[in-house]
Amino acid sequence: IASVPIEKEEVMEANVFGGYSSEDRMKEIVWKYEPRKREYLNPIAIHYLSLFDPKLITDFFKLDLKTMIVGGSHLQVLKDTFNASQFLETPARDAYAEIDKFYPGISKLIRIYEIELVLLGAGVCSNVIQKRLWNEGLNVRTLDIGSFFDMILDRKTRGWINESHLRIQEFKKIWLNSQ
């Protein structure tokens, strides 16, 4: 529902961020609960742009912000790639089961190192982390980009990654040349 309404753009390919056959029904459901809202932010913008406008997304991540990555230990290798000064490890699977153990560390690191951007790759637990940071009133930006991390690390966790091999290779070429 978060991607409604979705427009079919010229560059879209079958199975790669295209519209859904049930889109009209999804609109009806959303508008029933939010009758005044007709635009929805799409959570896959970074993923989409990495395939269809890779230069824009590589420039985006050159932001000069104090950055932290939160996620499984396999993401540690991305710390330098994203110029992250901090990394907080979560369980690679079912992170929510242990959120009360690791979440205080996120909040503490944000405060100590004045983190401005938190890049999340903790599965559905990323949403809970975002909500807790919001509730704490911390002045920090967050991006849940776990599947974007997966793309960079060649982890075939999503259909769009499996269907976009050539575009991903082009993105990586541009990404590496911009480092």
Tell me what you see in this structure.
The protein is of the alpha/beta class. It has eight helices and four strands. The chain has helices spanning 23-33, 45-52, 54-60, 99-113, 125-136, 146-152, 159-162, 165-178; strands at 67-71, 84-89, 117-121, 141-144. It has a four-stranded parallel sheet with strand order 2-1-3-4, with helices on both faces. Strand 3, helix 5 and strand 4 form a beta-alpha-beta unit. Helix 2 crosses helix 3 and helix 3 packs across helix 8 (165-178). The protein is globular. 23% of the residues are buried.
**Amino- and carboxy-terminal Cα gap:** 35 Å
Rg over alpha carbons: 17 Å
What is the beta-strand fraction? Answer: 5-15%
Low-confidence stretches: 1-5
> Structural class, from secondary structure content?
alpha/beta
Q: What is the number of beta strands?
A: 4
SSE ordering: HHHEEHEHEHHH
Tell me the helix content.
40-55%
Widest β-sheet, arrangement of strands: 2-1-3-4
Largest sheet: 4 strands, parallel
Number of helical segments? Answer: 8
What's the mean pLDDT score? Answer: 84
Q: Estimate the global geometry from the Cα principal axes.
A: globular
In short:
This protein is α/β, with parallel strands linked by helices. The chain has helices at residues 23-33, 45-52, 54-60, 99-113, 125-136, 146-152, 159-162, 165-178, and strands spanning 67-71, 84-89, 117-121, 141-144. β3, α5 and β4 (141-144) form a beta-alpha-beta unit.
